[in-house]
Design goal:
The protein is of the alpha/beta class and 388 residues long. The chain has two domains: 102 residues, 2-Layer Sandwich (Enolase-like, domain 1), CATH 3.30.390.10; 261 residues, Enolase-like C-terminal domain (TIM Barrel). It has 15 helices and 15 strands. The strands form three sheets. Strands 4, 5, 8, 9, 10, 11, 12, 13, 14 and 15 form a ten-stranded mixed β-sheet that branches. Helix 9 runs parallel beside helix 10. Bound molecules: magnesium ion.
Length: 388
């Protein structure tokens, strides 16, 4: 079998960034699909897939790890970041080809399944409704009670865990974000800490003590601010506070300075980047993104986490193909805490893939179709093409 073509697709979302997909075609009629990378750099990342893909035309797609290492070595001078994400896009589509060629799910090629179903949490609960309540057909977030009602809705839908961000309900609701971090030097002033306590308090009160609540503060605070927020939230018994922080020592400091468990790592790409965090035991749960670093690296990171007595939580905020890729990871490793799932999403999300995951009582069924168990619907991807 030989690779004959590599194509990328951009699909619009309710947000500013598109979802990115890669299709690799072969002379035996098998097409492998992937969802990959971050839409924030969609022109650069899809361009990188083109640069790398040209060198793979005519090659056998089945030795996936060997082709990954070839791409890694070609790009040593430009390693990490967008390059790693572009390599991931190709590697994931190659795994899909390999699964389809052998007529088995990807996790069966690598020793799974470890499980039949995967617990998921409703992610970005309330968050997407700040800007997109109307398009999602949901009530506007006018008051903190409206935010608490989102938490009730997740429980009514069968979820036993959810994750939110810091939101500001009102006539013009808003959320914490880059703008804030840029204008505020990532500080956490007292009124913001008090607001966060009010929000998490309202959500905790709405769902009672048995539902797991996560708060993602992203990269909006430096270590001192994160410590203040973590301490203030201790009474609410969070499942985790999630933070992106690029210094392992600072995270270790955050973890030891307060009692709210810490989840981090989504921005790390590959074993080399995770290792310093593991050595310092700088997190309680390891965030791992399959779409950003590829399947083999994500699996290796999970296996190294096992050595450090840590469990992983797949980062999964894209389309349903990304859910299928992430479910294949959870079925392929021994150490999973929980997995992310975006329930509020672009209304056309379920149209652009050939399958959607089965969800029951907050658990997704591990798929049993060959490859990822789900393809991109190319016609639908063109219908909803991103033209930004
Ligand atoms: Mg996060």
């Amino acid at each position: 079998m030989k690779i004959t073509a590599i194509e990328t697709f951009k699909v619009r979302t309710i947000g500013r960034m598109p979802w990115l997909f890669c299709a690799i075609r072969t002379d035996e009629g098998i097409t492998g699909y992937s969802e990959f990378g971050s839409g924030a750099l969609h022109m650069g990342i899809t361009g990188l897939v083109g640069d790398l893909g040209r060198r793979l035309i005519g090659q056998d797609p089945l030795p996936v790890d060997k082709l990954y290492m070839d791409m890694y070595r070609w790009t040593r001078s430009e390693s990490g970041g967008a390059t790693a994400m572009a390599i991931a896009g190709i590697e994931l589509a190659l795994w899909d080809i390999k699964g389809k060629f052998h007529d088995v799910p990807v996790y069966r090629l690598v020793g799974g399944p470890f499980r039949e179903k995967q617990r998921v949490y409703w992610s970005h609960l309330a968050t997407y409704r700040v800007r997109s309540a109307e398009i999602l057909g949901k009530p506007k977030l006018r008051t903190m009670e409206d935010v608490a009602n989102c938490a009730r809705e997740a429980v009514d839908a069968g979820y036993t865990a959810f994750k939110t961000n810091i939101v500001f309900p009102g006539e013009n609701p808003s959320m914490i974000g880059n703008m804030f971090a840029g204008s505020n030097d990532q500080n956490a002033p007292t009124d913001l800490v008090r607001h966060t306590v009010e929000q998490i308090g309202a959500m905790r009160q709405a769902v009672g003590p048995d539902i797991d609540i996560c708060l993602d503060i992203n990269y909006n605070f430096k270590t001192e601010g994160a410590i203040n927020i973590g301490r203030a939230l201790e009474p609410f018994d969070l499942f985790w506070m999630e933070i992106d922080n690029q210094d392992p020592e600072s995270l270790a400091q955050l973890k030891s300075a307060q009692r709210t468990p810490i989840c981090t790592g989504e921005q790390l790409l590959g074993l080399r980047q995770y290792q310093p965090y593991f050595r310092r035991h700088a997190m309680d749960t390891v965030k791992v993104d399959v779409q950003w670093q590829g399947f083999s690296q994500a699996k290796k990171v999970a296996e190294l986490a096992e050595v450090y007595e840590l469990n992983i939580a797949p980062h999964n905020y894209n389309s349903q193909l990304s859910s299928f890729q992430s479910l294949n990871l959870t079925a392929a490793v021994s150490n999973v805490r929980i997995m992310e799932s975006d329930v509020d999403s672009s209304p056309w999300r379920d149209e652009i893939t050939t399958q959607v995951p089965e969800i029951e009582n907050g658990f997704m069924t591990i798929p049993d179709g060959p490859g990822w168990g789900c393809d991109l619907d190319e016609k639908a991807a063109k219908k909803y093409a991103f033209e930004g």
